[in-house]
Design goal:
Elements lengths: L1 E7 L5 H9 L1 H4 L16 E6 L6 E7 L7 H9 L6 E7 L15 E3 L2 E6 L22 H13 L5 H13 L9 E5 L3 E6 L11 E4 L4 E4 L6 H4 L3 E3 L4 E6 L2 E8 L1
Antiparallel strand pairs: 1-4, 1-10, 2-3, 2-4, 5-6, 6-7, 7-8, 8-12, 9-10, 9-11, 12-13
Helix pairs in contact: 1-3, 4-5
Length: 253
């Protein structure tokens, strides 16, 4: 149960967008579940594309609420220019996954970064999910990342990677609340919306600004962006964005 943000390509007011997203750590929507407290305050993290375009770098991971963290504002301020690709994650821990720094997102491997919103039960049983080195305390999200990454790396073209992603999602035989997630290697971004429950909470929206694309679990309130055209991703869909095409491509499954 988390909030996701992805920015691809040049976007006006990108710092303001990050500041607005920061507020979701306290005010973000939560699912209608008994005894679930407001906020997404169990940690936060950022990743961005490398200057040379060779993959993604970890900007930082921290425990606690992003809204109360001076490090959040410092990280945003310290960017001399907008990274081509940027991911940010606000964590609301699943009941079975400890609140710890290693369990904060993003997770990185083989030049790719990953953020996830949802719970995958018995994720350690995912096929070949342990091919990559684990950095978390056996986080279900990192197992999911490694499972999806293995399939992505078996293909080279974007079209085939989309097909392989969808194939891997459909053949999962584990119970999950949501597989909503964003994967990126800096030059490509794949956004998955696949919820099994609480569809009004496990949402994803995207906004094509002309020069870039913004993806968020909730609508961002910055004036310039709010006046743009937001599209809610349909459930069971993959959004792909790359330098090969100026527009995002939505594929249903």
């Amino acid at each position: 149960m988390c909030r996701l943000l992805g920015i691809y390509g040049p976007v006006k007011s990108w710092r303001e967008i990050l500041s607005d997203f920061q507020e979701l750590s306290e005010k973000g929507k939560i699912p209608n579940i008994p005894n679930v407290l407001p906020g997404h305050k169990d940690g936060w993290g950022m990743a961005c594309s490398k200057h040379d375009g060779s993959g993604m770098d970890l900007v930082g991971k921290y425990l606690g609420s992003a809204r109360e963290a001076p490090e959040y504002r410092e990280k945003v301020h310290n960017f001399q220019s907008q990274p081509h690709t940027f991911l940010c994650h606000l964590r609301k821990a699943s009941p079975s996954i400890p609140i710890s720094l290693p369990n904060c997102h993003p997770f990185l491997s083989a030049g790719w970064a990953f953020i996830h919103n949802g719970t995958v039960y018995k994720a350690e049983n995912l096929e070949n999910a342990s091919r990559f080195q684990m950095t978390s305390d056996n986080s279900d999200s990192e197992f999911l990342f490694h499972y999806l990454l293995r399939h992505i790396l078996e293909e080279e073209s974007i079209e085939h990677r989309i097909e392989r992603l969808i194939e891997s999602l459909l053949k999962m035989n584990l119970k999950f609340s949501s597989l909503n997630s964003i994967l990126s290697n800096g030059s490509e971004m794949y956004v998955i919306r696949y919820a099994a429950e609480h569809h009004d909470y496990f949402t994803l929206f995207y906004n094509e600004t002309g020069s870039g694309v913004i993806v968020s679990s909730e609508l961002i309130g910055v004036q310039e962006v709010r006046e743009g055209i937001w599209t809610e991703m349909q459930n069971r869909s993959v959004l792909s964005i790359s330098s090969d095409s100026p527009k995002a491509k939505l594929t249903r499954f």
